[in-house]
């Protein structure tokens, strides 16, 4: 039965990306009715899940921490595609879409994914252990990226409003890429053991702890190809779905900035599930790698991509956070530091992070 279930899952994740491309070709350039919008939305969600599934297959082949890195990059490609396509559609709120989405991704990863992983992991296994050196380095990188890209624009004076000048935006983009590249080098080459699961005694757990054998090179190559197909489908279908997303947010009476929250929730849901599964297997380090890696990639890769896209996109690009958002970011960073420093955590820390996530969502709905 288990083998049959795996075969059905494999079949489903192979069909959906192809179906997404077919739907994209048929619907491109046409005005979609309610039924078509629903079908596109279902295919979009399915393509996101399929993309992350194939990223996990490739990740299982290459092992940790490369697996978490691949998954984070795949999710960020989806996020960038959604942001650019929605910004290209124009509108008065397009200028703050990148900021709202990146900030939402940071809050969801640092509070939602981390908090949920700590809560469910501690509930099942008691005290959780992780490597504070690697996790602390990742958190420091995320905090620096967030401050450079989301906080400084509020206080610079070259442009009116929370905007960077072209030179400042170029500097932020290059700095983001440099920090992300340095972290990747540290995580995968120089100090790879800092990002592997550990026991309560501090012993590193074998990176290939899964009982299931890793997929063959052929299976991994097929998943890599389907991952690319799924990502193309996600970006294209998001372009078709963007009017419905914005209309739905407006129809619900929510602030237009909530579109960014919807995008972040959409692309991070599968990764949240992967991190939760890792926590339930008492691999909280993998959960933290996924959360912090996604937060880092969301800033380190999205800001440079948006900077390049702004060359041909019309209108201003507002990146600076408001006062409420900066308070939430500062509190999140402070709490995250106190969570990471001991190298151990309980369900209390998970609950604190989830309360911060709830505060962010509530204030996004009722600012």
UniProtKB/TrEMBL annotation:
Subcellular location: Membrane
Domain annotation Sodium/calcium exchanger membrane region: ranges: 36-188, 223-365
Membrane topology note: Multi-pass membrane protein
GO cellular component, one term: plasma membrane
Main subcellular location: membrane
A GO MF term: sodium:proton antiporter activity
Key words of the record: Membrane, Transmembrane, Transmembrane helix
Record Pfam families: Na_Ca_ex
Transmembrane segments: 9-29, 35-54, 66-89, 101-122, 134-155, 167-185, 219-238, 258-276, 288-313, 319-341, 348-366
InterPro entries per the UniProt record, alphabetical: Alkaline_pH_Ca-Antiporter, NaCa_Exmemb
The name this protein goes by in its record: Ca2+/H+ antiporter
Organism encoding this protein: Cryptosporangium arvum DSM 44712
């Amino acid at each position: 039965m288990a083998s049959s279930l795996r075969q059905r899952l494999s079949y489903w994740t192979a069909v959906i990306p192809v179906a997404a491309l077919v739907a994209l070709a048929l619907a491109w350039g046409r005005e979609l009715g309610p039924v078509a919008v629903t079908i596109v939305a279902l295919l979009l969600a399915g393509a996101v899940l399929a993309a992350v599934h194939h990223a996990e297959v490739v990740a299982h082949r290459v092992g940790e921490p490369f697996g978490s890195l691949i998954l984070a990059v795949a999710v960020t490609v989806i996020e960038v595609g959604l942001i650019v396509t929605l910004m290209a559609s124009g509108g008065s709120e397009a200028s703050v879409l990148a900021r709202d989405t990146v900030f939402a991704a940071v809050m969801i990863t640092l509070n939602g994914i981390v908090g949920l992983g700590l809560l469910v992991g501690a509930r099942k296994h008691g005290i959780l252990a992780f490597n504070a050196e690697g996790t602390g380095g990742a958190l420091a990188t995320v905090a620096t990226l967030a401050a450079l890209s989301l906080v400084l624009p509020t206080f610079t004076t070259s442009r009116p409003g929370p905007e960077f000048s072209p030179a400042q935006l170029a500097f932020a983009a290059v700095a983001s890429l440099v920090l992300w590249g340095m972290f990747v080098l540290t995580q995968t080459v120089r100090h790879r053991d800092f990002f592997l699961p550990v026991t309560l005694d501090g012993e590193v757990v074998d990176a290939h702890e899964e009982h299931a054998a890793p997929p063959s090179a052929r299976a991994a190559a097929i998943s890599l190809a389907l991952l690319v197909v799924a990502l193309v489908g996600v970006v294209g279908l998001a372009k078709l779905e963007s009017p419905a997303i914005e209309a739905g947010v407006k129809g619900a009476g929510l602030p237009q900035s909530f579109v960014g929250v919807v995008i972040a929730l959409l692309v991070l849901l599968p990764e949240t599930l992967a991190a939760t599964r890792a926590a339930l297997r008492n691999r909280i380090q993998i959960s933290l790698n996924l959360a912090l890696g996604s937060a880092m990639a969301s800033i380190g890769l999205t800001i440079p991509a948006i900077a390049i896209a702004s060359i041909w996109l019309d209108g201003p690009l507002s990146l600076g956070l408001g006062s409420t958002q900066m308070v939430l970011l500062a509190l999140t960073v402070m709490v995250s530091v106190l969570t990471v420093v001991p190298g151990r955590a309980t369900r209390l820390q998970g609950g604190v992070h989830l309360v911060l996530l709830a505060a962010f969502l509530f204030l996004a709905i009722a600012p």
